[in-house]
Amino acid sequence: MSEQGFRAPEAVRITGVTYRQLDYWTRTDLVTPSINDAHGSGTQRLYSFQDLATLRVIKRLLDTGLSLQRIRRAVAHLEAMEERPHGVTLMSDGEGIYEAHSPEAVVDLLKGGQGVFAISLDAVWNDLESEVQKATPKGRAAGGS
Q: Could you tell me which residue, 49 or 139, shows the higher pLDDT?
């Protein structure tokens, strides 16, 4: 059975990014559709669930004010992970982006007194699963004909 794919309009609706952002990020290789990239007229980009999770994290990082250059490095790091990052929280002080694997690590990052924001990757994943279930009609694979 093939992986469920999400067309660009579905990806935009589910992740909250704009179509313009999605198109730009795809053209500049920040996020590449894992299932199918468009190759000329008549073909569609199909994004995987993992692609949607990456888009959601990018949006959250942008919303905190991080530069796209710093976000590109964080995305490269996330894509290098072999499996879904259970229990990982991304944190930033506005300059660097850090990965914490335990509550103790989060506390250590906060001890410096620097203001930070955190994004729980488990929460992103779980929220996205819920939204995909609501957005995808029963009995139809998103991106299917």
A: 49
